[in-house]
Amino acid sequence: RFDIVIAVDGPAASGKGTIARALAAHFGLPHMDTGSLYRAVGLAVLRAGGDPADAPLAAGCARALDLSLLDDPALRESATARAASVVSAHPDVRAALLDRQRAFARQPGGAVLDGRDIGTVIAPDADIKIFVTANLDVRARRRQAETPERDLALVRANLAERDARDSGRDAAPLRQAEDAILLDTSEMDRETAIARAFALAEARL
Ligand code: C5P
């Protein structure tokens, strides 16, 4: 078969988005950043003046997902990231976003998706699964470099809080699928990490 489905999972600021985009370009596949869906739901809740912990409100925002929020500059703010990680723990929110992600993964030709549960829940039969990780200090420095926030300790604490929530929840927690290849980018620069991901992917095809 000629469809190639690639699942890229990992914690925040691990480099999974960069690697997923590079794999998509390399194999000529469409790419979906699934974290942006949860961010859009989190942002919708904040804009409605609600609390991301309010499960019925968050599920309503997920079912009526406002796609224009995917292009909103506030999507990348740390308050939105935090709201995303809170709303993403509600099973009804995850259920509302499931079909959109599965349909993307099943399109003819294949696709690359990155997130937390692509290899475990969204596309358990993906051809290639890569679990991208890096230690917390490295991820905090990377995230600090791409945001206006100057306080490294605060960036680090926010990442640690989000990691704990994403890994500790009952609904589709962040974890490496049994058949995923681990790619630890702690000691790698961007080019090296991408080259390693290409080599891992090609070896599996
Ligand atoms: O990847 P990103 O940091 O943009 O994701 C934002 C939040 O969305 C994550 O902290 C996580 O809680 C949630 N998420 C998820 N499942 C995914 C992708 C993201 O729960 N597949």
TrEMBL record:
Binding positions (ATP): G10, P11, A12, A13, S14, G15, K16, G17, T18
Cytidylate kinase domain ranges (all copies): 6-199
First-tier enzyme category under EC: transferase
Gene Ontology cellular component terms for the protein in this record: cytoplasm
GO BP annotations listed: pyrimidine nucleotide metabolic process
UniProt entry keywords in alphabetical sequence: ATP-binding, Cytoplasm, Kinase, Nucleotide-binding, Transferase
Domain of life, per lineage: Bacteria
Coiled coil: none
SUPFAM superfamilies from the UniProt entry: P-loop containing nucleoside triphosphate hydrolases (SSF52540)
Molecular function terms from GO: ATP binding; dCMP kinase activity
EC number: 2.7.4.25
Catalytic activity: CMP + ATP = CDP + ADP; dCMP + ATP = dCDP + ADP
Main location: cytoplasm
Compartments (UniProt record): Cytoplasm
HAMAP family: Cytidyl_kinase_type1
Family indicated by similarity: Belongs to the cytidylate kinase family. Type 1 subfamily.
Protein's name according to its UniProt entry: Cytidylate kinase
Organism: Sphingosinicella soli
